[in-house]
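fyi for ur records
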Amino acid sequence: MEVDYGLLAKRLGKIRKEKGMTQAQLAEKANLTNNYISNIETQHSIPSLETLVKICNALEITPNDLLMGTVQTS
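which gave:
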């Protein structure tokens, strides 16, 4: 099983923008750093499950909203 982190990164940025949030606002709400949010969105960092849950809670979405279609089985 593989996760397409590129798709996850694009989806995160899209949802964040649709919610009218900057990376800094999301970072503050999720108790993360602005640089870390940026690194996730630019695929320089891979978030842990705990971090994904924090981000989802901050965006008021479910993890499924971010992960749907990003997991591929081989």
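The two ends are 6 Å apart (CA to CA). thats all i got for now
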